[in-house]
Amino acid sequence: IPHHTELYGSTPKTSLPIVYHSDYNITFMGLEKLHPFDAGKWGKVIHFLKEEQFITDENIVEAREASEQDLLVTHTKRYLNRLKFLFERVEGISTATIIDLDAHQGNGHERDFLDDQRVFIMDMYNRHIYPRDAYAKRAIKRRVELDWGTEDSEYLQKVELHCDGALNEVRPDVIVYNAGTDILDGDPLGGLSISPHGIVKRDELVFRAARRRGIPILMVTSGGYQKKTARIIADSILNLHHQGLIGPEREGLSSAATSPTSGPGSSGSALTAI
Ligand SMILES: [Zn+2]
């Protein structure tokens, strides 16, 4: 029995493929100011992108919160299991590749999709930090383990090599790109030494690999909470725009939908969830 859901409204053709909601910014009655991490980074990214006159409130897509009913549509109680959403609800999507470039080894999606042949996971991470989850590791089909203090040149070379390798091995209907910025030099948890320019370049390499093959890509910004992180994410999005890798949807550019938030007929080839 299909459950009622409002999550699949269509977005105007003029929208940029950028998804955001102000509720993303974590605030606890001012306590966030005492926290060394920048929990309000998403709002700042949006602020910078407005300052550069790339976006307005009108041309980005507002994220909708999934209701209890929406969650029942996925046939699972797990709120974050969005990928299963994609498989069940979006026509033309039956396989996905996760490119996980957050500094940490992934273990959420890995455990969710262990033994699920629809999902190919490539994960590049600092081998010495949390979670070192050997069980979840079995789900990673292309594993790239990095050492403390890995720098730009080695890192970017590996990103290019292994993105191409992963996408040549399996051609998915969609790419979900975890663009964690905790690889940034000075991150208290990541333990890697990637420069701001290196992060901008990394995102470009991943989007280019997707574009070359005509595969829709969804980027999520995830971890990394230094004070300068928001500026770097904004610069990266602007760079993707300048390189022609994201922008307003153009008719006939792509065929598959890219996100649970885009309804039938809305089909940007690249989507950025901030
Ligand atoms: Zn992380």
From TrEMBL:
Residues 250-274 are annotated as: Disordered. InterPro entries: HDAC_classIV, His_deacetylse_dom, His_deacetylse_dom_sf, Ureohydrolase_dom_sf. Residues 253-274 have a biased composition (Low complexity). Residues 93-236 form the Histone deacetylase domain. GO terms for molecular function: histone deacetylase activity; hydrolase activity. The keyword Ribosomal protein does not apply. This is Histone deacetylase domain-containing protein.
